[in-house]
Amino acid sequence: xxxxxxxxxxxxxxxxxxxxxxxxxxxxxxxxxxxxxxxxxxxxxxxxxxxxxxxxxxxxxxxxxxxxxxxxxxxxxxxxxxxxxxxxxxxxxxxxxxxxxxxxxxxxxxxxxxxxxxxxxxxxxxxxxxxxxxxxxxxxxxxxxxxxxxxxxxxxxxxxxxxxxxxxxxxxxxxxxxxxxxxxxxxxxxxxxxxxxxxxxxxxxxxxxxxxxxxxxxxxxxxxxxxxxxxxxxxxxxxxxxxxxxxxxxxxxxxxxxxxxxxxxxxxxx
Length: 270
What we know:
Residues 1-11 have low confidence and may be disordered. This protein has helices at 49-59, 63-70, 112-116, 155-161, 164-168, 172-183, 191-202, 204-213, 216-219, 224-232, 234-250; strands at 12-19, 24-27, 46-47, 71-75, 82-86, 99-100, 103-104, 119-126, 131-141, 147-154. Helix 7 (191-202) packs antiparallel against helix 11, helix 8 (204-213) packs across helix 11 and helix 10 (224-232) packs across helix 11. By secondary structure, the chain is α+β, with helices and mostly antiparallel strands.
């Protein structure tokens, strides 16, 4: 079967053209497309901290149960930071564990990476303007029949149609941490720092326990209002965790230390 992209089989290219939110492209994906579900096998499918919360709650599992059943740890190649990704099934096609006959069984809360396809996202630091900038690009795969067919739309229209802004906004600070670590180059990262990053990134329940049952509250200033939010709201806990990671890993003074804190081993910033 001839593809609409001119590629074959597992051929894959990243179109080296920078796209803006106003750039236009053509794409469609629905059960009537011949290649429907072919992109749901043998994937590197990273999960953001917010993905974990949403999928875990949708499946009515604890974080530990979800991580054990459906994920595996993975080291990001450029930043060398540990995250979790979806663990493919142990079958010939290495299909996604959430793939069923009719498509994605968790489509309502599908990961951010799935929502973006066939777009890719990069973030870089504009030193002149002192702000982060997002760069979009197109990924073409040989089997994909959805490219160059369907309705023309802008990148931003596609993002909105896929529910990307509301699932991306809660983890922007987390993405900034990864980007900042990448910009530092191949420096050695203390094992303790990696453990802290992984805990905040993958398991809010354990991070909450760490805050409430360790010396954390003796060391860092946490207001009563913030503490109540941390106890009851996983999303608020994530936002707090990202600021705390920036504080301990990069020396940013976002979560202040108490003046008379107990003596503990200091975590060396990246």
